[in-house]
C-alpha cells in the first residue's frame, strides 16, 4: 500500500513537464511573432499570422490560448515546408530543355519552333 502513493507521486512528477510543454500562455505572443517573422511567406504563414492577430485581440485568456494553438499548428506546417524547400535543390525543379541545332530546328531557338521563348536557347539559322 505504501508503494502506491510513491509511484503516483513519481508519475505526477514526470508527466507534469509534458503537460506544461503543451500549454500555451498569452505571454508567449511576442515569441510567436518573432518566430513567424523568420518564416517564409506562404499560406500557412499567413494563416498563422491571422490567428496570432486574433490572439492579440482576444478578450479572455481562453480565447487567446485557443488562437495560439492554431498559430502553433500553422507555424509548424510553415516551418516544415521551409525546411523541405531548403533540402530540395532548385535544380530538381527546373527542366532541361534541348535547344535547336542544325538538324533539329523544331526545338527552342530553331527556325521552325512555334512555342514560347526559352532562356538559354540562342536563335540558330
Query: How many separate structural domains?
Result: 2
The succession of helices and strands, N to C, reads: HHHH
Overall mean pLDDT stands at 81
> How many β-strand stretches?
0
How many helices? The count is 4
Overall form: rod-shaped
Structural class: mainly alpha
Q: In percent, how helical is the residue content?
A: 55-70%
Which sheet architecture does the biggest sheet show?
none
| Structural Rg | 27 Å
Distance between the termini: 96 Å
Low-confidence stretches: 7-11, 15-20
Q: Could you tell me the strand content as a percent range?
A: under 5%
Fold and architecture overview:
The chain is mainly alpha-helical and 125 residues long. Helix content is 57%, strand content 0%. The protein has 2 domains: 23-89, no CATH class; 95-125, no CATH class. The longest helix is centred in the middle third of the chain and has 27 residues, at 61-87. It is rod-shaped, with a radius of gyration of 27 Å. The chain starts with a helix and ends in a 38-residue tail after the last helix.
Amino acid at each position: 500500500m505504501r508503494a502506491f502513493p510513491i509511484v503516483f507521486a513519481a508519475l505526477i512528477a514526470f508527466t507534469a513537464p509534458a503537460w506544461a510543454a503543451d500549454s500555451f500562455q498569452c505571454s508567449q505572443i511576442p515569441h510567436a511573432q518573432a518566430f513567424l517573422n523568420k518564416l517564409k511567406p506562404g499560406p500557412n504563414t499567413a494563416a498563422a499570422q491571422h490567428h496570432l492577430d486574433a490572439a492579440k485581440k482576444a478578450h479572455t485568456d481562453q480565447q487567446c490560448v485557443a488562437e495560439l494553438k492554431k498559430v502553433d499548428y500553422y507555424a509548424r506546417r510553415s516551418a516544415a515546408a521551409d525546411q523541405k524547400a531548403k533540402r530540395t535543390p532548385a535544380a530538381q525543379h527546373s527542366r532541361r530543355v534541348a535547344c535547336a541545332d542544325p538538324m533539329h530546328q523544331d526545338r527552342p531557338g530553331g527556325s521552325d519552333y512555334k512555342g514560347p521563348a526559352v532562356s538559354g536557347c540562342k536563335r540558330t539559322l
